Protein 1
Amino acid sequence: MTMIAVLGNGRVGGSLALAFARAGHDVTVADRSPGSAADAVRAAQIVVNATPGAGSLERLVALREELRGKILVDVSNATVDGPDGLPVGLLYPRSSLAEQLQEALPGTHVVKTLNTMLYTVMTAPAALSQTPTAFLSGTDPDAKQVVRGLLADLGWQQEWVTDLGGIVTARAAEAAILFVPHVIRADGFAPFAVSITR
């Protein structure tokens, strides 16, 4: 059993928290108040960032000391949104949210994953008609191995997980968000994921 703090209690955070709890982990979901987040992070071994990406950097930098030495699983996308609320651009076009977090939190092991799919697929990958892919980006191999284990707890088979390499590769995974508004306009909010087939 691992102690996991999920930051963000929306659809993404709520779904992940429930799935991790069902897998036997000790899960705390922090609300938006700074005190709640700090207490949750301090007690956790692994922290999941499911907060809206545009404000994630500021929120997490405020928790620098609490995050020191911990694994931070970043599933958010930092976007510039259009009038309909769907992304029209990237907040960090020459970088990525994950890179910004790793630079600002050098004592934390940031791992990017699960941001290239509709949130329902994160916890039910086998529900799709074709095999989805979950990508991993991060500097620390041991941290990525731990996150692989968490993905397995969510139903991800190991052959569905692709390690892209260092944290700089997160900018490629985060750029996939630009597909989302077009996919949704074409097909609605049906579950989907980026998939690498060979």
Protein 2
Amino acid sequence: MAEPEFTATGVRIGRRLRSLTRAGQVRISDGRLQLLTSYGSEIDSAPVQAVRAGKPWFSSDDRALAAVDVNGTRYRLTLGEQDPAPGEPGPPSARRFIEAVRAAAGHRPRA
């Protein structure tokens, strides 16, 4: 069975009150989560089994915050912040990101 993959661009990545990038990338491949700058430099990475991801109850599915704990460092990801161009598919939602983390870590999806 192939590893689930997830890629999101245009993601705002922050740590505490500090913004690290406003156009970052999030990738899940080969069982690892990578947080990258817009230039492709790695901010942090960890095996998906060591990553905890969740979203606040008050956010919608298309524009949401995802709190990610990577090896004890908490990052705030804002997914779906940019509006898609006409005719383009929308940006990934926080729900799809969280499902991808759980699937890559071998957890069953919630019904």
Protein 3
Amino acid sequence: MVVLNRIYTKTGDKGETALGNGTRVPKHSLRVGAYGTVDELNATLGLARLHAGADLSEAIGRIQNDLFDLGADLARPEMEKDHTAGYPVLRIVEAQVSRLEAEIDAMIARLEPLRSFILPGGSPLAAHLHLCRTVARRAEREAVALAAEEAVNDWAVKYLNRLSDWFFVAGRIANDEGRTDILWVPGANR
């Protein structure tokens, strides 16, 4: 359990922060950037959830919890030394990725096939989910950049990849199951 007795500690006043293993790193490090963007995504998703009905709200709640797991995963760099923590180290696992895939498949079954690219927008929920999709893509790019330099859990990157797809499909669901999607018309304003 997490206990927060103080919110400010002053330990980051010189531009450093502590990772999950206690190592201090610059706040501009790739790792901090990656889990910081995951945190931004979670906050953005919280805004989307304000517009969601019961089914999507429940699914969004699961994803928000997963995003805290993902942040914890990215904040702890030692993949090979996980047993030294003295407690189970939280990592994204295959089952979380598989759940997203199953939810995507179930939503797609409710939609007509796309015949055009769609513009972000439509309903308020769809617009927010499209914003979440773009933040998830940025988080994925940052996690991939981090993985090029340091060890990163492969399932964490896969989760982010599936998650942006989840947001895209859920955005279509939020647009009356795709019926009110805003279609891109190439060259319409020439």
Protein 4
Amino acid sequence: MFTTAPGWPVMLSDGPVVLRPYRRRDADAWSEVRRANQAWLSPWESSPPGRWDELNSPAAFRYVHRDHRRSARRGEGMPFAVCLREGGRERLVGHLNLGNIVRRAFCSAYVGYWVDARVAGRGVIPTAMALAVDHAFGPGGLHRVEVNIRPENRPSRRVVEKLGFREEAYHPRYMHIDGAWRDHIGYAMTVEEIAAEGGLLARWHRVRATTR
């Protein structure tokens, strides 16, 4: 029998950044962003064989949406569409998932994300990450979140480093991506590490204030 994860479904926001569950009508917007960002995203993602435009078509989104819904119903994931609200309109610009959720004595999840290159550098994903982690540690009932990133992926590593994630491991040949088994660096954070700061979003706001 399927169950709903604690704290799910939910919509989260901070300024123009909005995290929400996916909707069926996101198909065209999701496909446009994914297809426009092939060069930006494909080197870092594991994917089945096939052409990028076919794997990221509106039709393919039906299967992506189905898998997201199944994962959320089982309590194994919290898949968010990352959106920007500007000029009274909302547009999909990325994805963030709290996945592989394990409960009981572990209470942990892995975080994966991507963002449209056209809005990169505007703090969208760090804000989205901070929102999601605070939610995971609060209503989501988790104790720990992990992120694994290829050493060469400097933009993604900067996201977690700016937020204060702890580098804790090096994983040789961790995942098959772009035709080969690729090394990854493991980052992690537990709820105790940000509790005294009022949460990760509060920490991120202070970091942004000192770097402007």
